[in-house]
Amino acid sequence: MTTNMTIDRDADQTSRPSDASRPTFSHLGLSTQCVHSGEQRQKPEGAITQPIFTASTYTFASTADLLRFVEGEEQREEYGRYGSPNEKSVEAKLAALDGAEDAILYSSGMAAIVGLLMTKLQSGDEIVFFDQCYHRSREFCSKHLARFGVVTHQVPTGDFAAMEASINDRTKLIVSESPTNPHLTSVDLEKFVAIGKANEVETLIDATLATPYNLRPIDYGVDYVWHSATKYLGGHNDLLAGSIAGSRELLDPVRKLRGVLGSVNSGHNLYLLERGLKTFELRMERHNKNGLAIAEFLEAHPRVGRVYYPGLKSHPSHEIAAAQMRGFGGLITFTVKDADWKETSRVVDAAQIARIAPSLGGVESLIEQPLVMSYYHCSPEERKQFGIDDNMIRFSCGIENTDDLIADLKQALEA
Ligand SMILES: Cc1ncc(COP(=O)(O)O)c(C=O)c1O
């Protein structure tokens, strides 16, 4: 055996050759992919499910064995911060679902965007956000990346002229969510990608609310697709995780930095995520059905003012949503007509099935009044700027029976 002691070990730890024992099934249906994609056909001991690996480190039988690994002759695990068998399986499944070459998992959605931005940006770089993006991601850039000399611009969501006007030679990335939270605004991905390409800046879409069932940003040429897997992908309100999907070339340095930052998942957490993903298509079918039926019910109810749901013709970006989404998801925002914040909170409190909690995308329906949840510590001026009304309610449909959820909302509105 020849040894090369100057080998770049970081490169080895992150290299991901295609693995024939992990078929993508990309030519087959979504549920077939959810169940089988990315998994090794033959798992340890013949187990049908992926065993949970708890190891923080992985042993070598001999120095010769170790040398085969460091010289790149053998792909295997080495240390938990660089990956695990559970992680490889779920990352390959997520890449298949997003139609991407690769996906990297993190310990939360926020850890994922932080990992990506820390890899791609340096002092003097600029980044442009549509302003309805998840507020913690904008906060990370404007408050924290600013300390390292990165400049963040925020422009009104969907205003492509303003986005293009904010791009200059230092701009590295443009960012949008689609649909957005809580206003459910869809962003035209063809225009978004065209601006990125024309200006030679990379593009990132937070597709957490859409999920790979309803939207496939990679097919439009988006560079990075970001998911909070805490939501629909995990789907059971029992885990936190996040992912970034994209090309192997773009993600390779991101994976390397994650090995340094260490925001990885335990084998237990990954097992839950993998198990949740098996039923992803089935759950999304019910989330979409519940979302549309409840949005239509709310729009027709006399106590309801405005309803924000991408599947309703009344939504200002409905045409974009209808053109690029397969379904419209389970999140609905509505206002209680002529109600103050207290009357609105009485509707929330009267719901008997949905639970009062932040988050979305799980099997349990959740209800919240943004004023007293995520936006409680904002000033009235900030709430006005973010479009948060005192009488607004956000409803995340679970997978309960449609008629039960509608009957419960009806009694809550009429209580
Ligand atoms: C649209 C969206 N993106 C990203 C995140 C961040 O994900 P996580 O909570 O998993 O860090 C959230 C969390 O609420 C979200 O709603």
UniProtKB/TrEMBL annotation:
One of its GO terms (molecular function) is cystathionine gamma-synthase activity. Residues 14-26 have a biased composition (Polar residues). InterPro entries: CGS1/2 (IPR044639), Cys/Met-Metab_PyrdxlP-dep_enz (IPR000277), Cys_met_metab_PP (IPR054542), PyrdxlP-dep_Trfase (IPR015424), PyrdxlP-dep_Trfase_major (IPR015421), PyrdxlP-dep_Trfase_small (IPR015422). The modification N6-(pyridoxal phosphate)lysine is found at K231. Keywords: Lyase, Pyridoxal phosphate. Its cofactor is pyridoxal 5'-phosphate. SUPFAM superfamilies: PLP-dependent transferases (SSF53383). Residues 1-26 are annotated as: Disordered. Its EC number is 4.4.1.8. GO terms for biological process: methionine biosynthetic process; transsulfuration. Belongs to the trans-sulfuration enzymes family. This is Cystathionine beta-lyase. It comes from Rubripirellula reticaptiva.
